[in-house]
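Sorry, any thoughts here?
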Amino acid sequence: MPTKWVRIWNERLPEVPLTLLGVSAAEAFDVLRGGGADAGFVRLPVDRTDLSAIPLYTETTVVVIPKDHHVAALDEVSTEDLADELVLHPLDDTLVWERLPGQPANERPATTADAVELVAAGVGVLVVPQSLARLHHRKDLTFRPVPDAPQSRVALSWPEDATTDLVEQFIGIVRGRTVNSTRGRPPAQAEPKRKRPAAGAASQRKPAAGKSSGKATGKNPRSGSGGPKGGKRGKPRRRS
């Protein structure tokens, strides 16, 4: 599921490698708290005591079945369609059921992977979030949406006290911030401060030669002559 965001990361920060670590839903929070990962895609709810989280999307729930199963002919499957099926319920199930559909198995598989193997062997069907069906995909199995089944919400989570600049970068990518966004681009290096003009130095640029600066140039701007009409002005005489 995170392929799109990894690609954008590699485009924006090619000098910083991004390594993906696959863990089960049950292990994800311990990995984050133990420093095994900077951030992770987890399933809600999240304990906000020491972890931050941003809800992202709600996953489609599907039923995993053999390709030759009779409900494989349907575009969508309801829980009523599974009433006569043996529905497996692994111990690491990420869905919260009020009542599991179908017929319960005598034992619960330890993991979702184990349950998929049983489905492939013709022992029951499995209802899971779509990403898990894709993760454990087999050529002899397929899956169909189950609209009235519980759904799983996915969030991006990270340790609250480890919100580094790189984690902020990844949050921005996941949230769809563009590269020009202030919080969506790598922090720029501070530019050197410009030197202020020394005391007494001119703070304005001098006009270029041949151009008017808007100041007096020796000519009266109204008359166009070099002085007032009536000739040159002499020195005033002193009165006795």
About this structure: Strands lie at 40-43, 51-58, 61-66, 86-88, 103-104, 125-129, 141-145, 153-159.
